[in-house]
Amino acid sequence: MMLKYIGNRILQIAILLVIYVAIVFFMLHAMPGGIKTLLISNPKLTPQAQEAIIRAFGLNQPLWLQFVDYMKNVFTLNLGISFSYYPTPVWNIIAERLPRTVLLFTVATLIAFFVGFASGKSLAWNRGKTTEYVSTVVGIITYTIFTPLLIFVVIWFFGSFLGIFPLNQFLNPDLWIHTRLNAQVIFLYILMTMLIIGAVMLVSYIMALRFSHKVRTRRMIFYLSTAISVIFSVFFWWVSPVGIYAADILWHMVLPVMTVTIISYAGNMLVMRDSMLETIKEDFITTARAKGLPDKVVRDKHAARTAMLPVVTNFVLSLGFVVSGGVITETLFSWPGMGMTLLDSTLAKDYPLAAGALIFTGIFVLIAHLVVDIVYAFLDPRIRY
Amino acid sequence: MMADNSNMTIEAEAKLESPLLIRSKLLWRAFKENWSIFSKSKIGMVGLYIVVIFAVAGFIVYPILADTVWKTTSLNAMVSYNPVTGYDFLQTNPAPPSWAHLLGTDPLGRDVLAQLLYSTPREFMLGIVAALITVIIGTLIGTVAAYFGGALDTFFMRLADIVLLFPFIPFLIVISGMMQVDLLTLALIIGLLSGFGGITIVLRSQGLIIKSRPFIESAKVSGASDAYIIVNHIIPNVMPLSFLYMMFNVTGAIFSEAVLSFFGLLNIKMSWGLMIYTADTAGYIIGSNIWNYWWLWLPAGASITLLCGAFYFIGRGLDEVVNPRLRKR
């Protein structure tokens, strides 16, 4: 049953992916003068070079043939060669930078989701109090603030005024100069650690559901296994010789993560607040209160769980919005991920790289969507297709 | 007999007034009712005040000032000075606020306040044009999909799914890097793209609710065509929701424009985002430096935030009008 659902979702996402690539392709060709003019209009190119580009991109073929070729190329990761990093293939650049963005976003969106969920919950519960009013206003301000403005202030406050966090770049060159390690490898290790911890959490949750019917035992199994896996991985990084490099990367990650979190938590919070407000008007909440259940139990067990569904929907739908905010964040913090690559390549008129970055940003969003869907289907007993 | 009599009098009265007048009266009454709900929401009123202030500043104050104080004047016998485009030779730029320049000047010697006010009507135009296009497309597609259902419905809903997941700003960045985008083109692009997005899903579900109402049945029985029913019965009933989404779309459009011009990707003369771009590329917004040159980025950034926020606030206020479940009991 579950597998069928997951298979269905994967199929849907695959179809969406094809449509997405098609949209990007036709957009590139709908530009005034078409992609051909864009590629060969550089006056520095000799006629021979122009000829070579036209042949390499197959620009003489009819549009649908080009489209088929393009599709084939995207799915075989053959995205051409970057102009500005000549002769590095676009895929190599993307493969190098995608993990950085993935790391930044996973951490930030997870924090934003839980902060938004918890604060929205208590906001709705304390409706009418000053704290509710103040935090709603703060939430709306951070939700609507012009992102660069927020980043200027964050950089000034934490980087210059307090001087506790490093600015710019994603590692400290002084530290890395003594090693022949590749930052890329460390990145992948960090991502892998996070994946393992996440998997442990998920498995322990499912095991706890199977194993026991008591809430307390379930909770203990879940928290214990999570804590053990976290402690184990921290210990592992501590004793390993590359631990200090990972710490350096994480240290540089604090400010960008914080910014993306600030940008995106408010959306979750406001939706949670609204959904919670609707839920607590329902009869079963009154019943729960009338039964004499403690306030906290009514809030967390009865109201919040029911109110969660729209928040998750909103969370999934806001992924695109968060990625957009991430482009700005990455650029201003010089975090060399997909967003910064996208902007830099666009400004440098490096079209193969820009198109590749755009496609993989979209693929990233779609896959994130898929992951959230599947995790959610595991967690919510109501979703069983 | 009594009932007949009263019917007669109502008909007699109805004959006296033209249908247009009755309709406008009904509209006015609905407006008054909704206004009383809207005006109770503090956040909506705050938004409305901010929008009105900006509108007055941009559409009334700026033309007056441009004709009087900021008229292209001669600084001395040689040079003339236009506060939006010219260079003030009488001082070193950027200069902090003074009586000559209430919000100081930027690195290119232009008056910051004049630039702010000059850009205001353009921001309004961009936001409203983009939102109008979005709402028109979204309303049409949403109601048509709801009314006809079937393959058409499925197609537009799947399309909306993908547009919703679209990384919007990255997409706009690539587009504006590849072609010359001015303000109107940008409004068109934003309007078209978001018109196929989430708004169609919301309006379709609202359209489905209205489609199941009895008056649609009776309109069908009376022989109304599909187009007539959609235009005269369904669209007016989803209108409040469209209007609500229009507010959110204005926010999105202004924000997108600000981001793109902040990256220097748009082919425009002046905008709030571009003001920050100018200061940033000239190197005045770095770390501890930012408060020494606050007038270069704070007024423009605050304007973007305030105007975006204001339309969002209005949307939240309207939400309470459209969605009765959110109201306080």
Task: Report the structural category of chain A.
Answer: mainly alpha
Query: Quaternary arrangement of the chains shown?
Result: heterodimer
Q: What gross morphology of chain A would you assign?
A: globular
Extract low-pLDDT stretches of chain B: none
Number of continuous helical runs of chain B: 12
What is the residue-mean pLDDT of chain B, rounded to a whole number? 83
Distance between the termini of chain B: 43 Å
Q: Helix tally of chain A?
A: 16
Instruction: Note the overall shape of chain B.
Output: elongated
Number of E strands of chain A:
0
Write out the strand line-up for the largest beta sheet of chain B, numbering strands in chain order.
Answer: 1-2
Percent in helix of chain B: over 70%
Helix content of chain A: over 70%
Structural commentary:
The complex is a heterodimer of chains A (385) and B (329). By secondary structure, chain A is mainly alpha-helical. Chain A has helices spanning 2-30, 34-40, 47-57, 63-75, 90-125, 130-144, 147-161, 173-176, 183-211, 215-239, 243-279, 283-290, 295-317, 319-332, 338-347, 351-379. The longest helix of chain A is centred in the last third of the chain and has 37 residues, at 243-279. The N and C termini of chain A lie close together (7 Å). With 329 residues, chain B is mostly helical. Helix content of chain B is 72%, strand content 1%. The chains are: A mainly alpha (385), B mainly alpha (329). Chains A and B meet through helix 1, helix 6, helix 7, helix 11 and helix 14 of A and helix 5, helix 6, helix 10 and helix 12 of B.
Short descriptors:
heterodimer, A: 385 residues, mainly alpha, 79% helix, 0% strand, B: 329 residues
Question: SSE layout and pairings?
Answer:
The complex is a heterodimer of chains A (385) and B (329).
Chain A: H1 2-30, H2 34-40, H3 47-57, H4 63-75, H5 90-125, H6 130-144, H7 147-161, H8 173-176, H9 183-211, H10 215-239, H11 243-279, H12 283-290, H13 295-317, H14 319-332, H15 338-347, H16 351-379
Helix pairs in contact in A: 1-4, 1-16, 5-9, 5-11, 5-13, 5-16, 6-11, 7-14, 9-10, 11-13, 11-14, 12-13, 14-15, 15-16
Chain B: H1 2-16, H2 19-38, H3 42-67, E1 73-74, E2 80-81, H4 112-148, H5 150-165, H6 168-178, H7 183-195, H8 198-211, H9 214-221, H10 226-262, H11 272-281, H12 294-322
Antiparallel strand pairs in B: 1-2
Helix pairs in contact in B: 2-12, 3-4, 3-12, 4-5, 4-7, 4-8, 4-10, 5-8, 7-10, 8-10, 9-10, 10-11, 10-12, 11-12
